[in-house]
Amino acid sequence: MKKIVPLILFCLSLCLSLSAQKTISLYDQLAPNSKPSNLKDSTVKYGDTPFVVRVITPELTMYLPEKSKATGIAVVVCPGGGYSGLAAEHEGHAIAKKLQANGIAGFVLKYRLPNTDLVNNKEFVPLQDAQRAIQIVRENAQKWGINPHKIGIQGNSAGGHLASTAGTHFMKEQISNPKKTSLRPDFMVLNYPVISFADNLTHYGSRFNLIGEMPSEELNKIMSDWQNSEKLLKALPVSAEKVKEYSNELQVTSNTPPTFITHANDDDVVPVQNSILFIAALQQNKVPVESFFYAKGGHGYGMDNPTSDIDWIGNCIKWIKNLK
Question: Which residue positions does the secretion signal occupy (predicted)?
C-alpha cells in the first residue's frame, strides 16, 4: 500500500498537469479573411527546431498554473518567424511553460501567416488573431482564474512586431466585438522585436511578408534563398504609407501599455535600434518601460541566451508581478 500511494499521487499530479494544457480554436467558423481550403496546418524541421510554415486553423494553447500558485496574470505568447512561419516551441510553448511554473497563465498563439494563397487582406490577418486571442482570454477570465485587467502580450522577433502592433493599434478593431471587450493588452513583453519597417532598421522579410505585394510563388522563391533574401527584398518597393502605419515606434501614445523589452546588441537579423527607438517613443509618451540588453546573443535565442548567465525572463516575471 505504501508503494501504491506515491504512484497514485504521481498519476493525479500528471492528470492535473495535462488538464492545465488545452488547445482551442480562435474561431467557431472560417477565420475572417481566410480563403476556404482543404489544406491542413504544416510543420517542418530545421535541424532539431520545428517550424510551423502553414496555419489554416489559428489556435490558442493554454497553460494554466495550479490554483495554489496562480497570480491571476495571463500572457498571450506570439512566436516569431518573419511572418513566414512560427518558431512555436522555443519562442512559444517553452515560454508559456515558464510563465505557468511561476503562477502566470500562458497562452501560445498559433496565428495565421500573411500568405495570399490562404488569406485576403493579408496585412490584417495576424493582428486579427492577436486581437481575438486577447478577446477570448478577457471574456473567459473568470472561468480561468484570471484578472481581466492583467492580460498582457509577449512576442519574439516578428512575433514582437505583432505584439507591439496589438499594443499600439488596439483602437483599430479588426474583429467582430459585440461585447465591446477591450482589445488593449495591459502590458507588453518584447523579445528582440521587429518594431520598425523603415529602411536599414527593419527585417525585410517580415516587412515584405506583411505589406509587400508579390505573388506568393515568386515570394517563396526569394525566401528560399535565405542567404540572399534580405538583400533581394530590400530592393523591392513597398507602400510608404504602410511602412509608416506598421512602424510601431511611430504609433506610440500615452495609452500604449507598459512594456518590458530585451535585445542583444549584436543582433545581426533585427538591429537593436528597433528596441532603442521603441523605448525612446515610450519614454517620450511617459509610458513605463523596463529594458534589458545583452552584449551578445545574436538573434532567436528564445528564453535562454547561451552567452550569458543572466536570465532575462526571470527579471521579466518579477516585473510583470510588480505591475499595478
Answer: 1-22
Residue ranges of domains in the chain:
29-322
Cell matching residue 138: 478577457
- Fold designation for 29-322: Rossmann fold (3.40.50)
Measured distance CA(13)–CA(37) in Å, rounded: 40
∠ CA 220-153-19, nearest 5°, is 95
| Residue carrying C-alpha cell 499521487 | 9
Write out the chain's pLDDT in tens, 324 residues: 444 444 444 444 444 444 458 999 999 999 999 999 999 999 999 888 899 999 999 999 999 999 999 999 999 999 999 999 999 999 999 999 999 999 999 999 999 999 999 999 999 999 999 999 999 999 999 999 999 999 999 999 999 999 999 999 999 999 999 999 999 999 999 999 999 999 999 999 999 999 999 877 788 888 777 778 898 899 899 999 999 999 999 999 999 999 999 999 999 999 999 999 999 999 999 999 999 999 999 999 999 999 999 999 999 999 999 998
Q: DSSP for 121-139?
A: SGGGHHHHHHHHHHHHHHH
212 in Cβ contact with 116 (< 8 Å)? no
- How far is Cα 320 from Cα 279, in angstroms, rounded to an integer? 17
The pTM assigned to this predicted structure is 0.92
